[in-house]
Amino acid sequence: MFLGRAALRSSTRALHTVTLFPGDGIGPQISESVKNIFAAAEVPIQWEERQVYPILEPNGKTRIPEDAVESIFKNKIGLKGPMRTAIGKGHVSLNLTIRRTFGLYANVRPAKSVPGVITPYSAEGVDCVIMRENTEGEYSGIEHTVVPGVVQSVKLITREASRNVAEYAFQYAKDHGRKNIVALHKANIMKMSDGMFLEQCREVAAKYPEISYKEMYLDSACLKIVSDPSKFDVMVMPNLYGDIFSDLTAGLIGGLGLAPSGNMGKDGIAIYEAVHGTADDLVEQNKGNPTALLMSALMMLRHMGLKTHADKIEGAVLETLKERKFVTGDIGGTATNPEYAAEICRKIKG
Amino acid sequence: MLRHITKPALSVGRAAVSTAAAPRTKYGGKTTVTLIPGDGVGPELAESVTTIFKEMAVPVEFEMIDLNREQLKDEGAFDYAIKSLKRNGVGLKGVINRSADFRHHNVEFRGNLDVYANVVRCMSFEGIKTHHTGIDLIAIRENTEGEYSCLEHESVPGVVESLKIITREKSMRIAKFAFDYAREHNRKKVTCIHKANIMKQSDGLFKACCKEVSEDYPMIKYEEQIVDNTCQQLVINPQQFDVMVMPNLYGNLVSNLAAGLVGGAGVVPSKSYGENIAVFEPGARHTWMEMKGMYVANPSAMVLSGAFMLKHLQLHEAGDVLIKAVKRVINRGEVRSRDLGGSCTTREMTRAFLAELDAIHSE
Known about the structure:
Largest interface: A-B, 58 and 58 residues
Order of helices and strands of chain A: EHEEEHEHEEEEHEHEHEHEEHHH
Number of strands of chain A: 14
Strand order of the largest sheet of chain B: 2-1-3-12-11-4-5-10-8-9
Oligomer: heterodimer
Strand order of the largest sheet of chain A: 2-1-5-14-13-6-7-12-10-11
Low-confidence stretches of chain B: 1-16
Largest sheet of chain A: 10 strands, mixed
Structural class of chain B: alpha/beta
Number of helices of chain B: 10
Shape of chain A: globular
Helix content of chain B: 25-40%
Mean pLDDT of chain B: 89
Number of helices of chain A: 10
Shape of chain B: globular
């Protein structure tokens, strides 16, 4: 089973081709900023832009356009901006469709305190990573109305999917020098489903004796992390808990506008994305914050082995945020998206 | 699962449940309430309450029922506890640790007694150093269905299905409870917490019921919010929340999160209501098994729960003075248990509360 190690590229290829889905709303604008910043840092990447929108087939299934799918299967690496889910009957969430199409089984959401963005938690510092199972659980989408007024929603947990995310989590921890993994669960209530998830985590943990493994009730984790987030390192959990908890950790560092995210798929596919919304009200004045998309792009660079470029860009971003002279409205500044990006480019070029 | 729908639906317009106590039979002027200390540090916390009540000479008699792991091996013990609560109508409890078999005692408890509304008020304490101040929110959680239906099976080897059940009847009931509670306590806003963008039918039903009920309460502002955004908002700007109503699991997470924001499991009490029953217990339900017998747990949450129980029994003076005493001790910050950054024992906290009660009486 694919373990998500850095997809090493042939050294004879000068340029890496990466698929870019700009998305909706502020998506195209912040993608533009990312492209400009990468150009300033002379990152050896060429972008292959594609549009992703849901196509509702007559049989009720949703799929994404063929050229988008082909591009990802060819390039393996993608960057995605925020997307709107079409409202209307039968439309499954676009994000869900993308996950299913590429078998994106593990969602990685690091949350690290950002200098210059002061939150009540900046003092003790947050530096944790959420590993969220990304294909099943409560998001199976299987619901029925049993009799009028009684709805049943099915949460599916499989041994295989639990195993996949556990394997990825431990390998990631090993690759990134992280020492502790905690599995978050509600196996006191959901004994069989979360129980199965934990069983897989325990089996994988046995193969990594150098990494400390613990289990914690999800509600205890919520209680403890808001008291002292510095005690949390890598956490692995099923889908719904991961969704909720990663938004919680994003909040600890300043919100979704700063939080990066990566999705690991089969056969070396890795798609990085901004998890915030399309912020349509900011489009006219081009005031969206590209930081989340940019941080996700840096995760992508590191995955591709381009650490030096990633570090250079990150340094410029963190310095810009720290100075607070050219930062966007969501973190208390007045700069537009291009002004913020231009400042970062200036710092990169030195 | 279908047992829930055989109950008659509530008529709109009548309060879902009156949080005022129905008159209780008193023997010799005393009210009998069930006390279930539970596991872990539960017995130590219960001792705190019984000590204080004795000193205060409140007209309450405890029917103590031990329900730890050993006791639970006897099927009859649990059933007896249920009978006792049904008879007395009021209870004070700790958390029962799950037994080795597949019975979920805490969940069965609530289901059997139909204690459907769990209310946790999280209010900032001046004397506790936390990341946020000025919080005063009330988390109202539907406590009998949702993800806690405990219906799981392994359909094929390696694939487990777990059912979440949402019914119109229970959703309407908790929504009505939440709005009535908000009105009774002069609260301005009720927010429905859900994940209907993903769980369109189940959380969609819950959300629709809340919206429907909100229309009967035009004086109260109604909002909806997706649970992941709620968790984010709680750590960025928790002061925006007033009353929150939600299904079982989200209620569990949000009330724990909010408890963590105001000082932790040691200081947050809760009240749970059914048609003819009220149960009082700490808001964040953790047994803390590792510390069993060491008397390091903070009894504030349990004592405050006891105080709310006194108020429920219409013993307002006693209840109010006890709440005042506990708050003063916490805010003064001199006597602090481990969770509050100090090193006092459970008994030292209890003695501090008693001393404060004396001080208040001499004022």
